[in-house]
Amino acid sequence: MAVLYRKYRPKSFEDIVGQEHIVTTLRNAIKMGEVAHAYLFSGPRGTGKTTMARVLTKTLNCQDSKEKDGVCLSCSVCAGIDNGSFIDLIEIDAASNRGIDDVRALKESVQFAPNQGIFKVYLIDEAHMLTKEASNALLKMLEEPPVHVIFVLATTEPHKLLPTIISRTQRFDFRFLTLEEILGRLKNLTNKEKRKIDDGVLNLVAGASGGSLRDAESILGKIFSLNNIEESEIRKLLGATDLASISNFIDFIIENNKEAVLKYINDMVSGGEDLEQFINSSIDYVRKLLFLKLSPSSEVLISGNLTKEELKKAKIQTTGLTEKKIYGIIKQLLEAVNNIKYSPMPQLPLELAVIEIIGE
Ligand SMILES: [Zn+2]
């Protein structure tokens, strides 16, 4: 089976998931004929920087751009970009072509007019990997770019670029995708592939992706090849802790129910749950509660990893906890996870932690 990420790579601005702020600005710039000669696409891996550069190239060069969203998807340019044969899109991996000679060769090539299209687009991936000498040579080109050339510098580490390079570009910051955005995309792909996968499983995949759409699609591809796609199996495979289980655990703490929480811990142990992982995931969750408590506006920050329902539940929980109490829980859980390796029984540090948290 073809890799999902490649098979369903967005073909137009319309197909791109998330990054609306960038799509809108680029679309408008193209419409107004105000395209910049150098762009900086900065942001974490797997958030669509290269895809955006390809769609931009296509929209600028399509031979029948009167079509919807500026691309016809059938002319030789559109087809060429999709199958990698369009020669006016030059992709350079700066991680392996980082020296001055590489940039000199680039400088030669930049002089020539486009072969097939209107604009030649140079996509320099991992641009921060260029040597200092090469960066300076690139800067010279950015200072006087030929009219038919557009540079797109993509990077995960913009702070490593020369400030003078950054100031020559129009910068776009790509963000991690939210859980809901990733979920929507995964559902879409599952339908296109005519597969049946439970929402719970897709939720797990989205959660495990950490906001990277590429990672989410790659995990989904692996799941498609499995025989057993039950939620419990996938949870084990991904090493994921059930958020509902963490949330229950916190409920018992809010209710000061020592007896229930100790029983809960021991049930987890007999059920074979990895306690270290459970504590780590709980710390992550309580940290989110702390953020929500400190500032309701941090919801945006949190919503990337929680579904709407989960977020609603988390908000209710924060009302039952003081800031000090949340801080205390994190502190105790951190201590428990540090002690687990040295404990004669894996559950003991967690038991002591909750007794300490709930108090007399
Ligand atoms: Zn076209």
UniProtKB/TrEMBL annotation:
Q: Give a Gene Ontology cellular component term annotated to this protein.
A: DNA polymerase III complex
Gene symbol of the encoding locus: dnaX
> Could you tell me which residue ranges the AAA+ ATPase domain spans?
35-183
How would you summarize the oligomeric state and partners of this protein? DNA polymerase III contains a core (composed of alpha, epsilon and theta chains) that associates with a tau subunit. This core dimerizes to form the POLIII' complex. PolIII' associates with the gamma complex (composed of gamma, delta, delta', psi and chi chains) and with the beta chain to form the complete DNA polymerase III complex.
- Enzyme Commission (EC) number: 2.7.7.7
**Nucleotidyltransferase keyword on record:** yes
* Name of this chain's protein: DNA polymerase III subunit gamma/tau
Q: Which GO terms describe its molecular function?
A: ATP binding; DNA binding; DNA-directed DNA polymerase activity; metal ion binding
What is the annotated signal peptide range for this record? none
Top-level taxon: Bacteria
Recorded hits in CDD domains, A to Z, give: AAA
For this protein, the record's SMART domains field holds: AAA
Q: Which InterPro entries match?
A: AAA+_ATPase, ClpA/B, DNA_pol3_clamp-load_cplx_C, DNA_pol_III_gamma-3, DNA_pol_III_sug/sutau_N, DNA_Rep/Repair_Clamp_Loader, P-loop_NTPase
Q: Give a single Pfam family match.
A: DNA_pol3_delta2
Origin species: Candidatus Spechtbacteria bacterium RIFCSPLOWO2_12_FULL_38_22
Q: Which GO terms describe its biological process?
A: DNA-templated DNA replication
Q: Which family does it belong to?
A: Belongs to the DnaX/STICHEL family.
Q: Which UniProt keywords apply?
A: ATP-binding, DNA replication, DNA-directed DNA polymerase, Metal-binding, Nucleotide-binding, Nucleotidyltransferase, Transferase, Zinc
What is the stated purpose of this protein?
A: DNA polymerase III is a complex, multichain enzyme responsible for most of the replicative synthesis in bacteria. This DNA polymerase also exhibits 3' to 5' exonuclease activity.
- From which lineage does this chain's organism come? Bacteria, Candidatus Spechtiibacteriota
Which reaction does this enzyme catalyse, per its entry? DNA(n) + a 2'-deoxyribonucleoside 5'-triphosphate = DNA(n+1) + diphosphate
